[in-house]
Amino acid sequence: MRIDNNIFSKFDAEEAVNALRHHAQPLETIDDLDPLIEYIGDAKYVLIGEASHGTHEYYTWRMKITQRLIKEKNFSFISVEGDWPDCSRVNRYVKHYPQSGNSSHEVLQSFNRWPTWMWGNWEMVAFIDWLKKFNSSLANNKKIGFYGLDVYSFRESLEAMMVYLKKYDIHAFNTAKKVLNCFESYGDDEGQSYARASAFIPEMCEQAVLDLLIEIRSKISNYNSDVENVFSTEQNAIIAVNAERYYRAMIQGGPRSWNIRDNHMVSTIDRLMKFHGDKAKIIIWEHNTHIGDARATDMIGDGMVNVGQLLTEKYAKDGVVAIGFGSYQGTVIAGNNWGDAIRKVTIPQAKVGSWEQLFHQAANGKNKLLMMHHIKDISCLSTHIGHRAIGVVYNPMRDQLGNYVPSIMPMRYDAFIFLDKTKALYPLHVESNNHQIPETYPFGF
Q1: Which of 37-46, 54-63, 220-229, 343-352 is the least confident region?
Q2: 7-75+282-422 adopts what CATH topology?
Q3: 65-77 tens-digit pLDDT
Q4: For the segment 241-269, what is each residue's pLDDT rounded down to a tens digit?
């Protein structure tokens, strides 16, 4: 992502620090979230971000907000930046479906596609334990669900479909098998071989996945199974279609593959909202780059859209609230490159003039909650300021050169949680000498 090297000189830093110091509120306990919960009000869409996919405090504070929204605002389900088949297993487990798993730890261990730590972590074990217990007293149609939004699970979605179709529709099962065979003929490397081949043969498996979706949709009303399984079967077929499009676009570069992915996530949100009925309310967990409105960043100049922008454009009247996160320094779980081993990496102090550095100076090392409507008319904060974003691949040696997204913060989010110093989360897929649960479990949920 491009960054303007002059963005940090376009505002009065002292004025910005003073404004943040005046308007930011303390954030120490779950009760300090009261201004945020009040602001959310009757909104039907709450998007909760993170500045990395490997930070303990982003997960735990996001979970605390989610708990309050479920208990106090009657939110219906959670959807996350995760693969549908893996999250479907979690969904069935927390809803007490038979033979859905023996423990949260067991179910989350099934997240075995890199980066495994995103959802396979002890923070999630604690939350899933809480959610299952919360659901235990609710009627079946009122239990809080947990769903994946992403498009990457081409193989897993096909395999999950085939398990179901083999029992209920052998003809559609054979169609799905043809799709899998078509895709596998180009290799088994997360779609890379298929993407490269598509540069020369642009419509290799496209018709096959479309035919599969059409067949399933034509028969789905006749499938006699629980409603979650029926919905999941159609969703997996949709993933197959959009994943094929994503992989073909990937080789071309540019914004198209990103836009296919975020449009897929929004269409999944739409399907989930319809599935849960007119009174449904959704909590969305994704990286800041997906939930903060793209129009407030340099993404718009690259022709990119994101979930936050698309939902705001479509459903502003229903209430769309985006909550961003950030920190000044700490540690994080990330890979040095794609597929790398799980590593705990030190995050250096934020770049001078960045949003995180200004907040650090204003907050005197404390955690803070900032409601953006308090600062939207302050000119020095209504310009593009660098806001740090850390992905699953992260090299701290390059932190001062990149990793900052120029953002008009009051436009990008409705609220921001600043955590001065953060630490890496606790992955499940890590060998330990004593195999003990981290001392932070269960985080008070």
Answers
A1: 220-229
A2: EreA/ChaN-like  fold (3.40.1660)
A3: 999 999 999 999 9
A4: 998 888 888 777 789 999 999 999 999 99
Q: What is the mean pLDDT of the segment spanning 398-410?
A: 90
Reduced to 3 states, what is the DSSP secondary structure of residue 67?
Answer: helix
Residue 421 backbone dihedrals phi, psi, to 5 degrees:
-135, 125
Taking Cα atoms as reference points, which of 5, 14, 32 lies closest to residue 378? 14
> What percentage of the chain has pLDDT greater than the value 70?
90
Cβ-Cβ contacts under 8 Å for 18 (sequence gap 6 or more): 362
CA angle 46/128/236 to nearest 5° reads 70
The number of residues making up the chain comes to 445
Question: Amino acid identity, residue 106?
Answer: E
DSSP for residue 393:
B
Spatial contact of 124 and 54, defined as CB atoms under 8 Å apart: no
Q: How far apart are CA 55 and CA 20, in angstroms?
A: 24
Q: What is the pTM (predicted TM-score) of this model?
A: 0.91
Nearest residue to 430 (alpha-carbon basis) of 176, 54, 161, 142: 54
Per-residue tokens: 422: 């953060």
Question: Domain residue spans in the chain?
Answer: 7-75+282-422, 80-138, 154-276
Cα angle value 39/40/46 (rounded, 5°): 145
The distance in angstroms from the start CA to the end CA of the chain is 37
And the tokens for 354?
A: 């960045």
User: Residue 132 and residue 148: Cα distance in Å, rounded?
Assistant: 17
